[in-house]
Amino acid sequence: MQTTPHDLQNYCNIAREAALKAGVILKEHFGKVSASMINEKAKNDYVTDVDKKSEDIIKSYIKSHFKNHDILAEESLAERNSSEFLWIIDPLDGTMNYIHGLPGFAVSIALEIEGNLAMGLIYEPLRENIYSAIREQGSFKNNNRIHVSRAETMASALIATGFPFRIKDIIDSYLRVLKDCFLRARGIRRGGSACLDLAYTAEGIFGGFFECALSPWDVAAGALLVTEAGGVVTDFKGGSRYLKTGNIVAGTKGIQHEILKIIQATFTN
């Protein structure tokens, strides 16, 4: 189907308004999450009442404009209407940070059209930062164009990562990769929010980012931000199936390739 730049900008505007509305709830409850508001979905994987409220707000706003669009969101069953449009939503990325009062969390909203990422938006409520990208139109932070780092090697860059808490049986392999990256990079950071790690990579704060066993809503918006900011994003095999595999390597061309070589020396599958 034919989607115009005007259409894509409209989708981005809707995502922005939905994220801002959800952000009101996130800011209102930040630092006030009680034990009764927290449930454990799986070992060390938590959801709060605030996640659910944020998701309800985002979904309701999107559906009020596009009632037949499909929705894939973290805290509810996928809504499928055989649409060419798929909204991919993380209402609160960085839930563990949020629970403990650590200010490293965000809202992530992406839109796929006919299976291709077309729009991505990440909202950082406490700092009031909005990162957005539209396919073939570049990446922006608060309406100002952003680009990936000028660093060409890990030795001159900060590298971001996340721990594989969902599949701890690969921890030894992950730690070998982390050790090699640690020895090569200027520094390593683990922020606890994959979408923000990707946004910061798009902005040039991090030279690269890698993590495994993520979900589509963790990386969809951020991946588009990085590519539209001039970076490279692949899965651990160097392909484009990161939304399917959950394994992602992102960064500047040189740094992404450097990290990927380290990963492929350990993760052979």
From TrEMBL:
GO terms for molecular function: inositol monophosphate 1-phosphatase activity; metal ion binding. The keyword Magnesium applies. This is Inositol-1-monophosphatase. Its EC number is 3.1.3.25. Keywords: Hydrolase, Magnesium, Metal-binding. CDD domains: IMPase. One of its GO terms (biological process) is signal transduction. The lineage of its organism: Bacteria, Pseudomonadati, Planctomycetota, Candidatus Brocadiia, Candidatus Brocadiales.
